[in-house]
């Protein structure tokens, strides 16, 4: 099956959202565009826009490959996506509130109790506690794929600490610097307001102890974390402090950060540290990344933690498979954005099917991310598939399976000119006093011809995403 090309029709015509870009592109000198690509790489290198590759001693820090050709989405397409995204994130927060309180969805038989009770992302410490503002997951990344002109599907949800938003913003800044004339001719919605929107959104969920303008800080695991550039970038763009666990301590029932004038209480902590490392008094006692006592301060109303501890259960890939039911249960409406078809390997019939069709499917760990711990059946060797089958039989509940999708393609710039490559899209959503969705998001692109793996850790790149004004 030929994948859907977002720029060109089957007859070779240009689709409406790309018409203005195509007219501009035809007037460009290919050699100049190649020079611009080199300029972009130099800019990213100077700025320090890198990511760490865990377990790769040869290239611990890499540049994120950036493609100059924008991905263009029409205003009408974006409105449909936005409605579906907002519906989904509202249902996700309602689900989290329910499972940490009365578990009505379990009692109704819509989600099996075993997926809650035995889930490592479920935190008993959050039971019967409602975070400030009633919001659990404040920052969400929803991974979306497209298979046809009007067919968008959610591939997975990122409800813990979604990354990549700094690349979205830097991609746009790079494009505007290199091609200002493009932005003069095309009406493109802004993404640069994201840091200001993030600060507004976090301020709106200040805890009861806050008695003035909210003090916000970003908690990072430190410079060796793969997303450290982003942590520093967002703190700088919001105008707030970037802190590590060693900079914080409990003082008079608050979490305070060390300053030259003594310790200053923090109202809202945007943490980029996993649950297990957040509080050594409650979770891993060997953690040096978190803050001793923060969970007690949190439960007593002394601080807001964004995202709330325990939100990871909402992006568990087994729970994901129930999201259409979850949306309908809490909203009373059918899901606007459907899931990719998913087999739950914990179920005997599904496991049998998956084992018989490994060569056709993509297998993922329910808690996996970044393209790690997965099997792309069509690209795997028979030995790799056999080894993975053993894992499936040993711990079937750890995995789900999905079909190998014919992801849509968009053009990238190659030595020979434009060529189609597969993409996905991660829109970024902020939830507090209202839902704020940045127009567009991060388009990740599989730069190798024929590859379906878009993750930067697995050789993918990024490109600017344009949502057109009507």
UniProtKB/TrEMBL annotation:
One Pfam family cited in the UniProt record for this chain: CP_ATPgrasp_2
Domain Circularly permuted ATP-grasp type: start-end pairs: 70-446
Domain of life: Bacteria
Lineage: Bacteria, Pseudomonadati, Pseudomonadota, Alphaproteobacteria, Hyphomicrobiales
Database matches in SUPFAM superfamilies: Glutathione synthetase ATP-binding domain-like
Species this protein is from: Consotaella salsifontis
InterPro entries with a match to the protein in the record: ATP-dep_Glu-Cys_Ligase-2, CP_ATPgrasp_2, UCP005522
Transmembrane segments: none
Protein name: Uncharacterized conserved protein, circularly permuted ATPgrasp superfamily
């Amino acid at each position: 099956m030929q994948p859907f090309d977002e720029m060109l029709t089957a007859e070779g015509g240009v689709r409406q959202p790309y018409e203005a870009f195509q007219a501009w592109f035809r007037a460009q000198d290919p050699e100049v565009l190649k020079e611009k690509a080199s300029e972009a790489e130099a800019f990213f290198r100077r700025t320090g826009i890198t990511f760490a590759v865990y377990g790769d001693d040869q290239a611990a820090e890499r540049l994120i490959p950036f493609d100059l050709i924008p991905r263009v989405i029409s205003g009408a397409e974006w409105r449909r996506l936005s409605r579906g995204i907002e519906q989904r994130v509202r249902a996700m927060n309602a689900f989290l509130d329910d499972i940490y309180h009365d578990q009505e969805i379990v009692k109704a038989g819509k989600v099996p109790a075993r997926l809650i009770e035995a889930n490592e992302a479920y935190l008993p410490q959050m039971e019967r506690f409602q975070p400030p503002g009633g919001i659990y997951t404040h920052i969400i990344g929803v991974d979306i794929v497209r298979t046809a002109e009007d067919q968008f599907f959610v591939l997975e949800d990122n409800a813990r600490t979604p990354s990549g938003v700094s690349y979205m913003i830097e991609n746009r800044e790079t494009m505007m610097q290199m091609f200002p004339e493009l932005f003069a001719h095309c009406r493109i919605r802004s993404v640069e307001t994201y840091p200001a929107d993030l600060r507004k959104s976090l301020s709106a969920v200040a805890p009861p102890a806050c008695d003035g303008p909210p003090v916000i800080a970003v908690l990072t695991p430190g410079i060796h974390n793969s997303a450290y550039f982003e942590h520093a970038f967002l703190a700088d763009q919001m105008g707030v402090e970037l802190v590590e666990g060693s900079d914080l301590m409990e003082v008079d029932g608050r979490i305070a950060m060390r300053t030259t004038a003594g310790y200053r209480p923090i109202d809202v902590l945007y943490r980029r540290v996993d649950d297990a490392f957040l509080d050594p008094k409650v979770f891993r006692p060997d953690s040096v990344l978190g803050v001793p006592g923060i969970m007690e301060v949190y439960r007593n109303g002394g601080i807001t933690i964004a995202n709330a501890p325990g939100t990871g259960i909402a992006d568990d890939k087994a729970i994901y498979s129930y999201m259409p039911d979850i949306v309908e249960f809490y909203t009373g409406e059918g899901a606007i954005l459907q899931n990719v078809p998913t087999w739950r390997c914990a179920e005997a019939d599904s496991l049998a099917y998956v084992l018989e069709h490994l060569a056709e499917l993509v297998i993922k760990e329910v808690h996996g991310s970044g393209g790690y711990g997965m099997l792309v059946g069509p690209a795997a060797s028979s030995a790799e598939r056999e080894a993975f089958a053993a894992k499936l039989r040993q711990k079937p509940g750890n995995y789900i399976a999905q079909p190998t999708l014919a992801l849509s393609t968009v053009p990238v710039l190659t030595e020979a000119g434009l060529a189609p490559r597969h993409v996905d899209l991660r829109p970024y959503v902020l939830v507090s006093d209202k839902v704020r969705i940045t127009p567009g998001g991060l388009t990740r692109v599989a730069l190798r011809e024929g590859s379906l793996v878009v993750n930067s850790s697995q050789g993918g790149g990024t490109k600017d995403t344009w949502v057109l004004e009507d």
